[in-house]
């Protein structure tokens, strides 16, 4: 276990009602890295995200982020450490405007009492304008998020993730339900984000994974089956067997 | 139901209207009885009661409309505030009670108690009563909310335990040994700070004070929900778990608004007791809390003004209806609630929006299922 890793899962297992969702999983991520996680349904991709973000507590194993043991922290504490998460189903605050969604995401005030007396600073307004530009939603800034298209909601959620200024972004199936053009734009956006932050992407769409052009980890039955470039893993006989049936 | 971040903007206008209308009533009640436009004391008492109920409705709207907590026990905080004020008013009677005992309220003499229980200490001072009126309901709300929100109890389960809370308090206050007058409650009040409670001047003054307090509560609530905290409150209501992954602690957010709301309800209860002249354990009845939810639904959830409007109109309807067909009122109330749900899901405040042209950017989506975020 090297000490310069950003995120380190070692020998993590979790069981739900007798079902081993994660089975002795070990995985490391270097600072600045982008990693794609693929695997068939039920491979444990989302459960892995749940464990990293504190939603699920593992039965055994250690999850380290910088120098923190994440298994001892809850979701808000982990989010404040600098891990942002985008859900499979876009989850934005539909009754608030795009701008207000971004405002709430901005790194900074988190205590309810402080928020009672908070006024938007010029610096915050600038950060929001920058985010709007990055996620290409400038013209919808004052529309309610509930009225956005599916793809726009995905981008808004990515924008909210960026507003948190996390060191690590966990992105769960970002292109599900997107058009081909949107998928490629999203790949560009993630690569742009990866210039300053580490990213873990879970995705089924192989065209999209190819476009990302990063190291791929294949999960199967809760543990790592193969790791390498997309070409390496897709030629791995064990991966072919898992994907094409036995 | 509509509860956009824009729809509470009219709260300050409502505050002005409440104060102005009440001023007219209060002045009208002080005209000589010979005047054709003299307002009868009966109307003043009713108006005071409606304003007190409007405080309760406002409290319910804060937690239900903005935090998605469907409270079915808010009358508990209202009644506790009422009892705190009632204790002071009972002590003010002094030796003018039936038994002429200057130290003990009548019901304690009747129960052959020799001295005041410790928890009545200081109740003869209005400042102490005012502090108790705020602190006791706030402390109960804080304890209850901390336990419930920390354990992530929400939705119908939370609604049921709020019912249990108010029901348990009702049973406790019914006990003679509990020290608050048993099923008779506290009544026969004479004066407040030396002002005769039956004088038209005191009554007009109390009514106007109620309007000012309600207006203040409306403005404070508007401030609470109008800023960044209010945005977060709506975010917690619609997608609680998402706020957690942004680094917020939704249980703290809910606790803050819950305690604030309990204090608004408690002030409403105190104003009620002063003007209606009695508080008894019936105020804790679960049905009262449910009625308060109906007022808010009729007026328009998540609008603040709608809560006030709903409380006044439904209670005005109740006053008229019960004079005319007393046994039918509950059916009428049920029909009203069903009709609102079916035909006016945004309440009366929704009507205003329906008849004003809306720009596309102001179209508000439905409140998403409050359960959705906690799954």
- Summing up helix and strand content along with how strands pair, one would put the structural category of chain B as mainly alpha
Q: Give the number of domains of chain B.
A: 1
Straight-line N-to-C gap of chain B = 21 Å
Count, helices of chain A: 10
Number of DSSP E strands of chain A: 10
- Portion of residues in beta strands of chain B equals under 5%
CATH topology name of chain A, in short, is: Rossmann fold
* General shape of chain B: globular
What does the radius of gyration of chain A come to? 18 Å
The CATH superfamily of chain A is identified as P-loop containing nucleotide triphosphate hydrolases
Q: Which strand order spans the largest sheet of chain A, edge to edge or round the barrel? A: 6-7-8-3-9-10
| CATH secondary-structure class of chain A | Alpha Beta
Q: How many helical stretches of chain B?
A: 13
Tell me, what's the shape of chain A? globular
Describe the structure.
The complex is a heterodimer of chains A (246) and B (375). Chain A has 246 residues and is an alpha/beta fold. Chain A has one domain (7-244): 3-Layer(aba) Sandwich (Rossmann fold). Chain A has ten helices and ten strands. Chain A has helices at 45-52, 75-81, 98-105, 112-116, 122-134, 150-163, 180-194, 206-212, 230-234, 237-244; strands at residues 7-16, 19-29, 34-38, 60-65, 68-69, 83-86, 168-172, 198-202, 215-220, 223-228. Chain A is globular. With 375 residues, chain B is mainly α. Chain B has one domain (11-374). Chain B has helices at residues 11-29, 41-65, 75-93, 106-110, 126-150, 155-174, 200-226, 228-245, 250-276, 286-299, 305-324, 329-343, 347-354, and strands at 186-187, 191-192, 195-196, 278-279. In chain B, helix 1 (11-29) packs antiparallel against helix 7 and helix 5 (126-150) packs antiparallel against helix 9. Chain B starts with 10 loop residues before the first helix and ends in a 21-residue tail after the last helix. The relative contact order of chain B is 0.20. Chain A binds chain B through residues 53, 55, 74-76, 79-80, 84-85, 87, 91-97, 100, 103-105, 109-113, 115-118, 120, 142-144, 146-147, 160, 164, and chain B through 3-5, 224, 227-229, 231-232, 234-235, 237-239, 241-249, 252-253, 256, 360-361, 363-365, 367-368.
């Amino acid at each position: 276990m090297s000490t310069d890793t950003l995120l380190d899962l070692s020998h993590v297992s979790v069981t739900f009602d007798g079902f081993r969702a994660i089975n002795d999983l070990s995985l490391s991520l270097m600072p600045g890295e982008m990693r794609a996680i693929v695997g068939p349904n039920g491979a444990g991709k989302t459960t892995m995200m749940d464990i990293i973000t504190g939603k699920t507590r593992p039965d055994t194993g250690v999850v380290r982020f910088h120098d923190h043991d994440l298994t001892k922290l809850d979701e808000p504490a982990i989010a404040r450490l600098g891990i942002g998460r985008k859900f499979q189903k876009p989850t934005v605050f539909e009754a608030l405007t795009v701008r207000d969604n971004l405002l709430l995401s901005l790194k900074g005030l988190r205590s309810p009492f402080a928020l009672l007396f908070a006024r938007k600073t010029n610096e915050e307004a600038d950060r929001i304008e920058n985010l709007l530009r990055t996620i290409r939603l400038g013209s919808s800034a004052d529309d309610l998020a509930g009225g956005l298209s599916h793809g726009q909601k995905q981008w808004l959620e990515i924008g909210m993730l960026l507003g948190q200024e996390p060191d690590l972004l966990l992105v769960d199936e970002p292109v599900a339900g997107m058009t081909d053009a949107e998928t490629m734009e999203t790949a560009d956006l993630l690569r742009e984000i990866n210039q300053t932050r580490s990213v873990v992407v879970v995705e089924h769409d192989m065209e999209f994974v190819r476009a990302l052009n990063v190291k791929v980890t294949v999960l199967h039955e809760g543990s790592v089956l193969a790791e390498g470039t997309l070409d390496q893993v897709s030629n791995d006989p064990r991966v072919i067997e898992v994907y094409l049936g036995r | 139901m509509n509860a956009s971040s824009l729809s509470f903007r009219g709260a300050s206008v409502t505050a002005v209207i409440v104060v102005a209308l009440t001023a007219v009533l209060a002045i009208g009640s002080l005209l000589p009885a010979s005047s054709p436009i003299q307002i009868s004391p009966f109307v003043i008492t009713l108006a005071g009661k409606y304003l007190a109920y409007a405080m309760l409705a406002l409290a319910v709207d804060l937690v239900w409309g903005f935090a998605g907590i469907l409270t079915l026990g808010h009358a508990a905080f209202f009644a506790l505030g009422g009892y705190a004020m009632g204790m002071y008013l009972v002590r003010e009677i002094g030796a003018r009670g039936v038994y002429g005992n200057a130290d003990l309220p009548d019901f304690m003499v009747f129960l052959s108690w020799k001295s005041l229980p410790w928890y009545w200490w200081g109740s003869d001072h209005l400042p102490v009563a005012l502090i108790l009126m705020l602190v006791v309901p706030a402390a109960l709300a804080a304890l209850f909310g901390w336990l419930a929100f920390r354990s992530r109890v929400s939705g119908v389960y939370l609604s049921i335990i709020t019912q249990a809370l108010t029901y348990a308090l009702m049973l406790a206050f019914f006990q003679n040994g509990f020290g608050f007058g048993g099923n008779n409650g506290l009544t026969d009040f004479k004066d407040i700070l030396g002002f005769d409670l039956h004088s038209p001047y005191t009554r007009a003054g109390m009514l106007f004070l109620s309007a000012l307090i309600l207006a203040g509560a409306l403005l404070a609530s508007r401030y609470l929900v109008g800023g960044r905290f209010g945005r977060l409150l709506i975010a917690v209501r619609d997608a609680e778990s998402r706020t957690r992954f942004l680094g917020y602690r939704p249980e703290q957010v809910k606790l803050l608004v819950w305690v604030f709301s309990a204090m608004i309800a408690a002030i409403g209860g105190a104003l009620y007791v002063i003007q209606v002249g009695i508080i008894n354990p019936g105020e804790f009845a679960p049905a009262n809390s449910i009625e308060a939810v109906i007022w808010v639904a009729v007026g328009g959830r998540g609008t603040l003004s709608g809560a006030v409007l709903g409380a006044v109109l439904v209670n005005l309807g109740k006053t008229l209806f019960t004079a005319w067909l007393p046994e039918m009122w509950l059916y009428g109330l049920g029909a009203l609630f069903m009709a609102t749900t079916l035909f006016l899901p945004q309440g009366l405040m929704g009507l205003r929006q329906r008849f004003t042209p809306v720009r596309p950017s102001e179209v508000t989506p439905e409140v998403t299922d409050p359960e959705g975020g906690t799954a």
